[in-house]
Design brief:
Length: about 150
């Protein structure tokens, strides 16, 4: 599978460390008048990113206490549980969150941060069976997915 391209964006200076992962939540109201807001808000809302490289460029920021620093990011893989019949390496899946059992121990793996419902992803790796039995009786596999 081809490597994901990197993208330059701005993040809070405190977070600007290689390997740090974050989920982009979108533009804040404080960004409205910022002259560099396009550089900060150039990612896909709800997607998980990993910082690859930290650059030396720094800007004052109304959102981040210590300002914002330029970084190179790539979309990070996400580990989640999916139906066993969809868990095939390199297969494309459309994520649909069909379970609302928030008390389930596997809930955070069935509905992980950084995955957008309705979007398509590629199964990059099948990591194994679910560690817990699904409360809805479904056969689940633990997989690593990337945006399609």
């Amino acid at each position: 599978m081809a490597e994901t391209k990197t993208k330059v964006t701005l993040v809070g200076t405190v977070l600007a460390k290689p390997g740090t992962e974050f989920v982009y939540e979108g533009e804040s109201p404080e960004c409205e008048t910022c002259k560099v807001k396009k550089a900060c808000n150039n990612l896909n809302r709800g997607h998980r990113y990993r910082i690859i490289t930290v650059r030396s460029t720094h800007h004052d920021c109304a959102v981040h206490l210590n300002g914002a620093t330029a970084v190179e990011v790539m979309e990070a893989p996400v580990t989640m549980l999916i139906s066993a019949d969809m868990a095939m390496i390199n297969s494309k899946i459309k994520v649909e969150f069909s379970c609302n059992k928030t008390e389930c121990r596997s809930y955070s793996l069935c509905r992980p941060d950084g995955v957008v419902e309705g979007e398509k992803y590629v199964v990059a790796d099948v990591l194994g069976n679910a560690s817990d039995i699904c409360g809805k009786g479904r056969a689940l596999k633990l997989v690593e997915i990337r945006p399609a």
